[in-house]
Amino acid sequence: MHAIGVDIGGTKIAAGVVDENGKILARTLGATEPSDPASIDRAVSDVYAELSAQFEVAAIGVAAAGFVNADRSTVLFAPNIAWRDYPLRENVRALLTDDVRVVVENDANAAGWAEFRFGAGRDVDDMLLLTVGTGLGGAIVIGGNLVRGAWGVAAEVGHMRVVPHGHICGCGNEGCWEQYASGSALERDARAAIIKHPERAGRLLELADGDLVEGSHVTSAAKGGDPLAIELLAELGRWIGEGSASVAALLDPALVVIGGGVGAAGELLLGPARYAYAHSLSARGYRPFAQFRLAAMGNDAGIVGAADLARI
Amino acid sequence: MHAIGVDIGGTKIAAGVVDENGKILARTLGATEPSDPASIDRAVSDVYAELSAQFEVAAIGVAAAGFVNADRSTVLFAPNIAWRDYPLRENVRALLTDDVRVVVENDANAAGWAEFRFGAGRDVDDMLLLTVGTGLGGAIVIGGNLVRGAWGVAAEVGHMRVVPHGHICGCGNEGCWEQYASGSALERDARAAIIKHPERAGRLLELADGDLVEGSHVTSAAKGGDPLAIELLAELGRWIGEGSASVAALLDPALVVIGGGVGAAGELLLGPARYAYAHSLSARGYRPFAQFRLAAMGNDAGIVGAADLARI
Amino acid sequence: MHAIGVDIGGTKIAAGVVDENGKILARTLGATEPSDPASIDRAVSDVYAELSAQFEVAAIGVAAAGFVNADRSTVLFAPNIAWRDYPLRENVRALLTDDVRVVVENDANAAGWAEFRFGAGRDVDDMLLLTVGTGLGGAIVIGGNLVRGAWGVAAEVGHMRVVPHGHICGCGNEGCWEQYASGSALERDARAAIIKHPERAGRLLELADGDLVEGSHVTSAAKGGDPLAIELLAELGRWIGEGSASVAALLDPALVVIGGGVGAAGELLLGPARYAYAHSLSARGYRPFAQFRLAAMGNDAGIVGAADLARI
Amino acid sequence: MHAIGVDIGGTKIAAGVVDENGKILARTLGATEPSDPASIDRAVSDVYAELSAQFEVAAIGVAAAGFVNADRSTVLFAPNIAWRDYPLRENVRALLTDDVRVVVENDANAAGWAEFRFGAGRDVDDMLLLTVGTGLGGAIVIGGNLVRGAWGVAAEVGHMRVVPHGHICGCGNEGCWEQYASGSALERDARAAIIKHPERAGRLLELADGDLVEGSHVTSAAKGGDPLAIELLAELGRWIGEGSASVAALLDPALVVIGGGVGAAGELLLGPARYAYAHSLSARGYRPFAQFRLAAMGNDAGIVGAADLARI
Known about the structure:
CATH topology of the largest domain in chain A: Nucleotidyltransferase, domain 5
Strand order of the largest sheet of chain A: 3-2-1-4-8
Oligomer: homotetramer
CATH architecture of the largest domain in chain A: 2-Layer Sandwich
Number of strands of chain A: 13
Shape of chain A: globular
Number of helices of chain A: 9
Helix content of chain A: 25-40%
Order of helices and strands of chain A: EEEHEEEEHEHEEEHHHHEHEH
Structural class of chain A: alpha/beta
Largest sheet of chain A: 5 strands, mixed
Distance between the termini of chain A: 11 Å
Radius of gyration of chain A: 20 Å
């Protein structure tokens, strides 16, 4: 039974027909206007019309970057799209000519589910996905089930507090994990390190070429052996590993999957993360260490996960 | 279908026949020797013989204070009983004359399950149990399922790290939640406060009557209006609430149940916990606050939960 | 022997003739342009001309909000005035017709010296001044001597780190004391508390009357008994007291003087500061607790202290 | 003018005649009983008699490991000797036949003064001594003056708080610097690292040879290139450097002198300390970085400093 997955970004949507093995059989794109939610409803309806003309589909899953309520129908809030208690499922259904099943999913949950079913986590039952990008998003699978929580707002992993009285977060709290374990944190620390240790920052400044240093410069410099860049990634990895050990105290996952742009650093990030995890894990000696792996599904994760979750 | 639940303590075991509504129909007790695991096998076998003579039972669940492996057969480690990779299920089965289903459960998980099915959490699907005693134990129920984790060692909630470089924990790590949110932490802080603020400690010293102040003195003094004792409980409640907010970032529970001896403090503990939770919760405004309630099953929780889990 | 003290603000200067008892015998004001350091040189020269016509003076001390070098001649950097390695003493002397002694002092050091000589600290030899305003400034007097440090940059008390990985400071570091113990911190926390605990924020919102809550609203509400405002000031006081205990581990002062606008809160601030200090002090029991007092010199402290230091 | 310096240890005292250049002209030793303060009085009197027979001396300085009051006469408390409000100066004077000047000094202050006058700090006016041993002791010299504080208890540097809610200290507080920057902290962390990372601990285990790993093993392994040992020293150095930056925010020293047994690690400790200091210093760019140097006076520091301070 095929399903359509739709991944809604800020100004465009990507969609595909996904089979039961997680394979995308056909794809399409559409344009949207983030300030006009109705434009998104129509774009979803359009990609449905286009793709369902090619394949018979039983369901459509829509991945949205925002808080989705527990019955998977309404976007409670989205940071980058003008959704506020927005009944996305009903609005999309009203535009569809078929009586197809429609579900809305948080985009990180959809991506995590894709990794769990078809990607880096397909051999485990208990998995933590960390999407290390601008912020720190994620998804949690426990006992083979996606954790949505009582109100659909679970797996906001970036807002677990790791430092009391720590960095102020955009969410209004202090010390949130994403203030220490995200691409933004990496860039902030890289820029501070350049000021504090100019004698060590030559390579980073060279790569930045007059602009602000970005995460990709750090990864590139580190791969070339630059000691400061290697340290910066190791520090990021340390926070990922230590925070994951706190998650493990609660959930005992078999696997931590690292997604997001910072994953490009590969072992320069995963090595320190594993080491810090081993250093901080409780019940050490009575269970194996969780694996740390890079995400495997790339940009298709949202489409594949949303489609697969729509079938359930 | 009835089941027997057995709660194994250090020097005695308590057992009961439990019906499908969580009611204990018959009870018995037995003595054990914690340094002799075989004595515990026999005691379990004995209570089974005694109780199964009175009621027809389909299963027996054994609640044990230790790490239990994922297939619920072996105690990997127990702090107070000489179990090390101990095949408790097989050893007990070898002593039973009937071919009854036997399962081993972590005691906090059993207690949490009892609260979830028949106690404080019977109206929710997503619940965190915190057992605030000598340490900080707990159980997690998500989507109606007990969270055991990949290797059976989930819900070691007391070892989530809440303070980097924080108090050294018996587990070998730093900053574990139970170093801040447990009866031991309360006593440690009460004893320090007496030294630091003798002018405010009159009531606590009076209750301690020449001995070390204990948690029960703090609760008693606080109920009588003693400001220092009220502050000490509020501080404990604050750590409970703040840590629970970190758990909520991951799991979005509808309910936090507080068990353990410190629960006797009631609202003097729950009030500050709720306030700190509200202060620290992420996604505030997009979901209700979780409820904070006291555990309702008392000392029967282990028996009832173990029996009920054995049926599943 | 009289001396002139000059207190240089952003757009104006205040000056006075000060006698050996710290009394201001005559005053004057002048206007300056912060982006034009030469305008400040001239303004200082003008007030000198005006005041020295009225009284015979032996020296002129200039208090400046910036880093002043160790020989008290050059402003290394000022946040609000365009001084960068600026030879303020030489430039002023070049404009004066008399061969009078000229010294430049950091403004917080000048104010602290005034408190030490003639104000809240006139009965002690070892004193910490904390100026709790937009930031956290201060001055240190040890053994009757002002502490300037090897390069003139001592007593940047607000940048002692109190939280590893803590709030990011404008100075580029993390966890600086002034991020927790300043009027800005009070306002930030008050604004967050209003969002997090709207049910408790009625009085603060009423006083703010549609604008952002400010520190003065918190003080005013607290004096009227508002519980949330009292808590906010107590939290500020707690950070002042705990940080002062760290200073005491190094310097063992007899007195902590609290200046700056937040001092208006009086005992609502000092009480919690004293309590936290007592709670955190080392060598407790082997020395008295330092006193906590409000600054006594008001806005004259800069003039009086600069004049007095110029005489030394 | 010569003076005698006496360094009182647990079970023995070392004394010498010291000239104005800090040179020891004659030495002697004596035995004491730490539980019997009178035995120490007599031992001091005896070494005075012996040494004053050889050289004319003007004063005797006694260095004691304990809190010494501000007028340098009484030991308020000592951790390892039975001094409690003990009038050491008067008791010693009562035993002397000459009317010589007697002063009592804290031993770390005496050692710091020796470094300042004749050792690693003889070219600066503002210096911090850190004695990194079992605990973290120290001395502070500001503007050429030893900082004793209002009640003689200054420079208890190890009890500056560096981590809120941090490790519990023997002093009753949490997060004291010496819990992170001392030989004891190094050993604690080394032992934990062996358990947590056995695959990296081969060299340390080899050196410990069946006993507990000690600080000297870490230093030795690190000097041989062992990566884990190098990391452990770097972590110790990091805490030294970060804490020193907090001290610098207050005192702006030109120099940090590292004494105590851990100094044997040399650059393996100083390098990371300098780096962390540079990373954490405030007013960076407006002053040079303080130097970090090893102590130069060795075990003579107490004798030389006590003698020299007795002359002042």
